[in-house]
Design a protein that fits this description.
542 residues, mainly beta, Immunoglobulin-like, Coagulation Factor XIII, Chain A, domain 1, 2 domains, seven-stranded antiparallel β-sheet, 6 helices, 9% helix, globular
Length: 542
Amino acid sequence: MLKANINAGVTVLRIDPNDQEPLAGTVVGSSSRGPTMNNHFIKPEIGAPGASVSAIAGTGTGTEPFGGTSGAAPMVAGAAALLKSARPYLSNFELKALLVNTGETDINNKAAILGGYKAPITRIGGGEVRVDRAVAAPIAAWVTNSKAPAISLGFDDWSVEKVTKRISISVQNYEAKGKTYKICTSYRFADDQANGAVTVSAPNTVYVPANGLANFGVKVELKPAMLNAWALNSGSLGASADTLTAAEFDGYVTLVEKTADCSSVNGVVHVPWQMLPRKAGEVTMSWLKGPNVKLKNRGIAAAPVESYSMIGVSPNQPEGGLGENNPNPDLRYVGYATYPVPAGYCSDDPSFVMAFAVNTFERQTHANAPLSIEIDLDVDQDGNVDYAVYTRDVSTNLSDGRNLVWVYEVATGTQDAWFYTDHQTNSSNTVLTICGEQIGMNANNFFDPMDLMVFAVDNYFTGLITDYIDGITISPLGEQYLGVFENGGVGFTNLAPKGVGDTDKLAIQDYGFLTNNTENGLLLLYRDGAIPWVEAAAIYVK
């Protein structure tokens, strides 16, 4: 490009080495972040340089740049080998604990010149590895039951007023003299402490006998009602690190010398802790007279409720065991709803938006993996698939982090995406939204029947179809069953928290005489956080 435009003039930008920003003490932007999917453990538990310069084996003095896990992981392995050499009598979990306990915590998420701030626990765990500190440490600490060197408090939804968790921490003394240590609890970020929703406490001190083991308890109290409104999702904010950081609570439990000040020292050893809590509603349902249902919210958070005409039900499949790609993506309920839109919304003509609601047996931490939902549409009912509607990352290869609803046209081999995937993180509910124009339809096609199949695809481990529902016929704006809420509207209501307008009546209207669709009732989705297994409800109409 420079050569082609040389006659137009080229401006040379010179960078003064004195103005460069060192990247030491920052996390590489591509570094993975926890908590882990499904079990929501703190990962990584430790960090190491992963964008640096390394010796080239066999060259004597040769070096080359390296990056990523292929650099950081062997550096930690080498540190563990050095520690094992210095202290060969220790078990593997003790060696791991010592490395995590003594990591450098003064690490930022990115360079200060770019607005960096402290890296959260789910990016660094115990910090950047410092093998010299691990070799010299007089004690090690870990969670008593799991032997893990980090306190993973989970990604959970809470509909109750108060939650208390108690964790036992073990401390091993490697010296021939007993010693008393002060116990300090801290938050990684000041706004976590100021929020007041999560309180971490421990005894003031712990005495560890010579060459002996001692335990102390950490109490974590959560008041879900004080949590901020949930913002994280798998769509527009699916790659937003700042939104995740704002939602989680984290810090360290640190053991320091008895005479030390908790606010001014790094401590002898530390154990990271992290919690990702979400306040939730808890909806219950009961039948009233006629085709009416009463909904009640027993939770401390508002509970938005959406209704869809139910078009598919699938039985529960057993989850895979350890090493068997657990969980196995598994469909539970599928429904749909059509919304007429004026000219200018989807195209220059009046049209419709169609939403496919899918509830699965297992929760998805993020819509990117391991489940991809695919809906194959035969819009002219000739037995051939015309369009495939499916969920996938913006990049289509999981590298972006934001999930979109893609529409693939079989005849042309082209695809586009007009909407983000509606998935609220760690949820079994996913809604796929499309415009009529994306499948060759608009308002002129109201009530035209189409056939479809719904697939659950394992897009992360195997690439295989793990579940499907077929034999479905629907019509745009031709839903057989429609849910009308007395205090809300058609297809939607918002149940206030427990004790404040927390009930509503749902009337089920049957328009089956208009179409030959295959609906069998209403599907209700409970949104914005709902306790596991109470995120959806099926109402069968006979």
